[in-house]
Amino acid sequence: MLPQYTKYKKGLGVVLGVILIFVIAYLAVFGRALSQKENHIGIVFALPKVILGSGVARIDEKTYLSKNSISFVQVMEKQGFTYTEQLGASYFFEKDEDSYLSIGRMYSSHFMVFTYPTKN
User: Fold this and answer.
1) Half-sphere exposure of 87 (CA within 13 A, CB side)
2) Which pTM does this prediction carry?
3) Could you tell me the keywords of this UniProt record (predicted)?
């Protein structure tokens, strides 16, 4: 009976070891970005999408994570907004003859966080 439990313990140890290696690798790659005061859970899921996907991912209802401003503007244009200009950290859009404002800022040296455009 004892060897049977040893086999399960060994399998459990392997699974836990793989999970631990995955967590350490994830933190090594994305750890610097997670050290800022933000919605960490949303960013944890958004970072791989941004890096491996289109370059933009939604963090929550009002916030996007992006590799750069160009990617963010392209996503907003797909949603029907027309980019008009940038003044500092403010990005101006138009939609249905209304003016909208989005604020962008650096999240780390590699990513930017943008607010969803709000009506002016």
Assistant:
1) 4
2) 0.70
3) Membrane, Transmembrane, Transmembrane helix
How do residues 62-72 score in pLDDT, each as one tens digit? 999 999 999 99
Please, are residues 101 and 91 in contact by the beta-carbon 8 Å criterion?
yes
Chain centroid to CA 113: how far? 8
Structure tokens at 53: 């996907």
Residue predicted with more confidence, 7 or 77: 77
| Residue 76 to residue 45: CA distance in whole angstroms | 20
Residue with tokens 């040296």: 109
At residue 3 the predicted structure's pLDDT band, cuts being 50, 70 and 90, is: low
Strand, coil or helix: what is 114?
strand
Check residue 85 and give its pLDDT: 97
Sign of the alpha-carbon torsion through 83, 44, 27, 105: positive
The answer to whether 64 touches 113, Cβ cutoff 8 Å, is yes
**Cα distance between residue 43 and residue 75, in whole Å:** 18
From the number of C-beta atoms within 10 Å of its C-beta (0-12, 13-18, 19+), residue 46 rates as buried
